[in-house]
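Project standup — Tuesday

K.O.: blocked on the structure for the chain from last sprint. Re-posting the sequence here as requested.
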Amino acid sequence: MNPKMRYIQNFFLLASFLLLIVELKAKVGEKVFSGFMLLENGQEEPKLFFDILGNKNTLINFWSINCIPCKKEIPDLLANLTIDSTTQIYFINTDPETDKEKAIKIAKELKIEKKLLFDFQQVASELLIKPKVLIPTSIIINRKGVIKYESFGYHETTVINLNKAIGKLGN
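H.V.: unblocked you, prediction finished:
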């Protein structure tokens, strides 16, 4: 195949993939696409996001090792979130796999290593964070897989607003 045709073919393949991602991005009130894999800290094999969600309300917090607001938000979440047995929390690290050991070290310092997931391929980030560059981001997904609340960035009212949203979930 000549280089021009290969370029055109790759362009259309990439454009199709980007359109698929745009179609799969869920908004508040929509069911989240959960057919992708994430690696759980301490595990060898990735798990389907659907299996991670289980039958529980889930708060997902996206963070990065170089995100200063993330390092402020996570301790606030752990200290002040009101979570009962029907709700679980996971922290998804968005850094590349080359930073895995550094992410684990920081997760231990932040005391989130037991609820740590890795998104090395940026699939969860692409599907759930809008705009992608804005972290920290917290998303609440109900037990039916519907996004009920999104919070972008961190400020003093973040945890208050997350607690209100969690309170509206019911059992």
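K.O.: great, moving the ticket to review. The longest strand covers residues 57-63. The chain has one domain: 26-167.
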